[in-house]
Write a structure and sequence with these properties.
alpha+beta, 2 helices, 91 residues, single chain
Length: 91
């Protein structure tokens, strides 16, 4: 039986948006080299949410992982959007 795998070709624009949003978060929080940030975009299945959401995970050395959501695709997120979401707090 053959197994079929869908190849994952990364969209360069999506990767650039992810790196850009992560850099905004790093700058807003003043994170160091030992801290990590990941940015993901998820499609919301609820018609009320309006489409894609951006999730930012902040992993500080020795601390609990924090999550922040932006109710927009990561390509649309500005430095001000990220700073405002981080200022509101984390989940």
């Amino acid at each position: 039986m053959a197994l079929f795998f869908r190849s994952r070709v990364e969209d360069p624009a999506r990767a650039d948006a992810s790196r850009r949003v992560a850099a905004y978060a790093r700058e807003a929080l003043g994170l160091g080299e030992d801290d990590a940030v990941t940015v993901s975009e998820i499609a919301c299945g609820d018609p009320a949410c309006g489409g894609a959401e951006t999730v930012i995970l902040i992993m500080r050395a020795g601390a609990k992982t924090e999550a922040v959501k932006l109710l927009m695709p990561m390509a649309q997120a500005s430095a001000e959007d990220v700073a405002a979401a981080l200022a509101k707090g984390t989940d």
